[in-house]
Structure formats: C-alpha cells, structure tokens
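A further point concerns the way the authors explain their paired sequence and structure data. Nothing conveys this as quickly as seeing an actual entry. An entry of this sort, consisting of the sequence and the corresponding backbone structure tokens, reads as follows:
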Amino acid sequence: MQINSSGIKRFLIVSPHPDDAELGMGGTILTLKEKKHYVAIIDMTSGEPTPYGSKDKRKKETREATKILGVDERLNLDLPNRYLFDSKEARLLLAGKIRLIKPDIIFCPYPEDAHPDHKSAASISEGARFYTKYTKISLEGEPWYSEYLFYYSCSHLRKIPSMSFLIDISAHYRNKTMTMQCYRSQFIDNPKNRSVFEWVEARDRYYGALIKKQYAEPFFCNEALSVSDPAMFLS
C-alpha cells in the first residue's frame, strides 16, 4: 500500500460508543480537520445504559464534543449497546453509510480488547469495508472500496501493543481533553471512571516520547505500508 499525503482526503472513524473516537484518536481528528480534510464519525450505539447516563444526556454530550472536533458529519446507527454483534445486518447497515461517505481511509477500534462491543465494532468494520465493493447487492450508493483500514486504540485491556505508526497530537492535546470532558456522565459524574484522564494522558505521553514529541496517538495496520519519500519522516 502506498501512502499519499497530497490533496484533501476523506476519513471515516467508526466508534462503538459516543466518546471512543475522542478517547482513542481525538487529537488526530483535530489534526485532520486543521488540514481541511473531510472527517465523518459513525457511532454504532448510543452507549446506554450506563450508571450515570441517559440517551438524552449522551446525545447532548456528543453534540458538545462534536462541535469542538469540528467534524463534517456524525451519525449514530443505534445498534444495541453491550450487545453489539458482528452480523450480516450490522455489516450491511454500516456498508451503506460507507458507500455514501466514500472515505479514502476508515479507522475502527483495535480488535484486541476486553470490551465485546469494541471487538465487534472492529469485525463489523472489516466486513462492511469489503461489502461496499459488492455489485448486485441491496445497498445505498455505488460500489466503493476504501484504500486503507487503520485501527485506533480505545482498549479496556491494561497493555500497550506495538503500533504501526504514531501521529503527533501535541498541538491539539488541550482540545482533545476538552472533548473527553464533554462526556461528563461517563468520566466525571462516575467516580470509578475519573482516572481515564490520567490514563489517556500517560498513554499519549508515552507514545509521544517515542517520537520525541509531547503527545502522540498510536495506530495499527494489518497490511504493509509503502512510503515514497523517506524525507517525510524528518521534521
């Protein structure tokens, strides 16, 4: 696969629940929008029920976070939280949206995770990406195939997997934190989850240190990546 960094591109982030995209790659989303790329987010579930949340609260929190991110489009498939399964129906639902958005690159959760919804979101995304190129199938839009599928880290496992590449998010870390704070019902009202800010910052600082930056977010790819100009690695 060849990395092409020129021109305006289209990106889609698949998020199991509202807040996972912000936790895993909020800084990268802000970076992409700074570069004027088209960015869409699809939340697969409402994220409810949770101890301190409600559907109305989550919708309001998501709107606030989305405003900070500045993305072009955000949809919710309203699939069942806690019971998200990889199925033909879920794949077709997501594939139809992918055909309409036509992303060059899809991001989805890293599949090695303790949360079943996150694992399912990854496998649904993989299947949907392939379904979008089918002909003679009952789907909206024209056949499409996104060139890349990358995984971002929003894992519940206490481990740091080896990454394929890192994106410097130092310039946008403050706003990433602000998007996380929008999800008050999840990370502030619930005392058990307040440590998420410390955990995410420690993780992003660790990855940033690997590339001599203050903060970075990790990404993973199952395919070989080709770089045409090694100078792109030099600051």
Q: What stands out?
A: The longest strand covers residues 38-45. Residues 116-131 form the longest helix (16 residues).
